[in-house]
Write a structure and sequence with these properties.
Radius of gyration: 19 Å
Strand content: 25-35%
Structural class: alpha+beta
Order of helices and strands: HEEHEHEEEEEEHEEEHEHHEEHE
Distance between the termini: 45 Å
Shape: globular
Number of strands: 16
Largest sheet: 7 strands, mixed
Helix content: 10-25%
Length: 342
C-alpha cells in the first residue's frame, strides 16, 4: 500500500512539474550554511543542461556541472547554495533534462545535502531549486506566469501558448516567521531592432512577474532572477548610458520609471549595486552573454553581499581544470549573491 501511495504521489507531482530528490545532510568540505538572517542565492541559464566535451558545431561546448563545482567550492564561496533559479531546464518537447538532474549533481557536489526543484516543463525551461535542510515550499503557491510578445512596434503584447515564468513561495525553517517569494524568468528570444525594439514585451512581462511575486504575500525576501534576453542599456556615441525603459522601471536605484502610468517596481539589481551604478563596471565585470548583460538577479531584501558573476575559467578550475571538461559551463554566465532578510 505504501509503495502504491508513493507511486501515486510521485505521478501527481510529476504532472505538476514538481521534482523532488532526497539525500543525506553532510556539507561540502569547507562550506557551511548561511547565517540565519541570510541566504546564498544563484541564477543560471544552463544552456539546455548540456554536458558537451568535444565537437559542438557552431554552438559553444558547455558543461553546466562546472557552475555547480564553482558554487560548491569553499575556495570560492563560503556558504552552500540555498536557492538556485534556473532557465533552459526540463523542457520536455526539446528533450532537455529535468531540473532533477541539476539537483542530483548539486547534491553530489555538496556531499549529499537535500535539494528539491520545481519546473514548468515548457519552452524557456524556468525552474527553481532550493535546499530543504533550510527551506520549505509553501504548498499551493506555485504559479506559471504566461509571457507575451508583440508582432510589431504598433501591436499590443499577446500571450504565448508555451512560455512561462515560474513563481513560488518558500518558508525558512530556521525562522518560520521568514518567507521568501521567488521567480525564475526566461523571456522569449525575439527580434530586438530599430523597427520593433520591444518585441519581447520586456516591460509588460516584468510587470506581470513582479506582480505575481508580490501577490504571494508578505515576505522578508523577494527574488526575481533569470534571463531577460534584453539589454539593461547601451552607451551612446558621447559615452552616456541609454538605459532601456523596462530596466529604468524595474531598478529601484535608477531615478525613473518606464512610462508615466506605473511607478518604479522597486527591485534592487544586485550587480548594479556591486558596481555603484557604473555601466563600465557592469559591462566589464558582469556581462552574461556575448559580452552583454541580459541576465539579472533582482531582489527585494535588506542588504546584498558578495555579488559575483561567475567566470568561465574559474568555474573550470573548480571542476578540476582542463582535460575532458568544456571551456564554458553555459553560453551565459551565472550570478550569485548573499542576501540578508528585511
Amino acid at each position: 500500500m505504501r509503495s502504491l501511495l508513493t507511486f501515486i504521489v510521485a505521478a501527481l507531482m510529476g504532472a505538476l512539474g514538481i521534482v523532488t530528490v532526497h539525500a543525506g545532510t553532510a556539507y561540502a568540505a569547507g562550506q557551511t550554511g548561511a547565517p540565519t538572517d541570510r541566504l546564498q542565492v544563484w541564477n543560471l541559464n544552463t544552456h539546455h543542461m548540456r554536458t558537451d566535451s568535444s565537437s559542438c558545431g557552431t554552438s559553444p561546448c558547455t558543461d553546466y556541472r562546472e557552475f555547480i563545482a564553482y558554487i560548491t567550492d569553499p575556495a570560492r564561496v563560503a556558504y552552500v547554495p540555498d536557492i538556485v533559479t534556473l532557465q533552459e531546464a526540463g523542457t520536455a518537447s526539446l528533450g532537455v533534462p529535468s531540473c532533477q538532474q541539476f539537483v542530483t549533481d548539486l547534491q553530489n557536489s555538496t556531499g549529499g545535502l537535500d535539494y528539491h526543484c520545481y519546473e514548468t516543463a515548457e519552452t524557456g525551461g524556468s525552474a527553481i531549486a532550493y535546499r530543504t535542510g533550510r527551506l520549505s515550499y509553501v504548498g499551493g503557491t506555485m504559479q506559471e506566469v504566461q509571457l507575451k510578445t508583440r508582432a510589431n512596434a504598433d501591436a499590443d503584447c499577446t500571450t504565448l501558448s508555451n512560455w512561462y515564468a515560474l513563481v513560488l513561495r518558500l518558508k525558512d525553517d530556521l525562522d518560520t516567521s521568514k518567507f521568501i517569494n521567488v521567480a525564475s524568468v526566461h523571456l522569449p528570444v525575439v527580434a530586438d531592432n530599430a523597427s520593433n525594439p520591444d518585441a519581447d514585451c520586456a516591460w509588460e512581462n516584468t510587470k506581470s512577474i513582479s506582480s505575481a511575486v508580490q501577490g504571494l504575500g508578505s515576505a522578508s525576501m523577494q527574488i526575481m532572477a533569470g534571463d531577460w534576453n534584453h539589454l539593461d542599456g547601451t552607451l551612446n556615441s558621447s559615452g552616456q548610458v541609454a538605459w532601456e525603459c523596462w530596466y529604468k522601471g524595474t531598478n529601484v536605484d535608477y531615478p525613473g520609471t518606464c512610462g508615466t502610468t506605473v511607478a518604479n517596481l522597486g527591485w534592487k539589481d544586485a550587480m548594479y549595486r556591486a558596481c555603484g551604478g557604473d555601466y563600465n563596471c557592469l559591462d566589464a565585470n558582469h556581462w552574461t552573454h556575448a559580452s552583454t548583460r541580459i541576465d539579472f538577479l533582482f531582489v527585494k531584501t535588506y542588504a546584498v553581499y558578495n555579488q559575483v558573476t561567475v567566470d568561465y575559467a574559474l568555474a573550470r578550475q573548480s571542476a578540476g581544470g582542463a582535460g575532458t571538461l568544456a571551456p564554458q559551463y553555459s553560453d551565459h554566465r551565472g550570478q550569485g549573491a548573499l542576501l540578508r532578510y528585511y
